[in-house]
């Protein structure tokens, strides 16, 4: 995704306290999932973690899988495959848009 392509769901604007309230997870659990490379919050210049609504959804999915007995390394592998598939889809869509724009001589004003 580039610049303006970000959905509001992907903007990292929430603190860990808000995420904790939304998910019902403890700060310790959220930090553990970050340590296990299951989520990737942004950090402010002062080191404060910032999360998106997409991160909240992902945390809820992780918590459900943990409850089902799935190991964190298995979750990480599954999420990595899904993320890669999504990136490939986005690149493909951008290529098609570029080809259509070139074909129809579209120019942004």
From TrEMBL:
Residue span, HTH merR-type domain: 13-81
Statement: the UniProt record of this protein carries the keyword Repressor: yes
PROSITE patterns linked to this entry: HTH_MERR_2 (PS50937)
Organism: Bacillus songklensis
The keyword Plastid appears for this protein: no
Superkingdom field: Bacteria
Record keywords: DNA-binding, Repressor, Transcription, Transcription regulation
Protein name: MerR family transcriptional regulator
InterPro entries: DNA-bd_dom_put_sf (IPR009061), MerR-type_HTH_dom (IPR000551), MerR_fam (IPR047057)
């Amino acid at each position: 995704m580039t610049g303006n392509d970000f959905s509001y769901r992907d903007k990292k604007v929430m603190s860990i306290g808000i995420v904790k309230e939304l998910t019902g997870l403890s700060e310790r659990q959220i930090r553990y999932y970050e340590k296990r490379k299951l989520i990737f919050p942004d950090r402010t210049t002062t080191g404060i973690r910032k999360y998106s609504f997409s991160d909240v959804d992902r945390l809820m999915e992780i918590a459900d899988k943990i409850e089902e007995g799935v190991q964190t390394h298995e979750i990480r592998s599954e999420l990595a495959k899904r993320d890669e598939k999504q990136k490939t889809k986005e690149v493909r869509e951008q290529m098609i848009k570029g080809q259509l724009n070139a074909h129809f001589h579209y120019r942004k004003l």
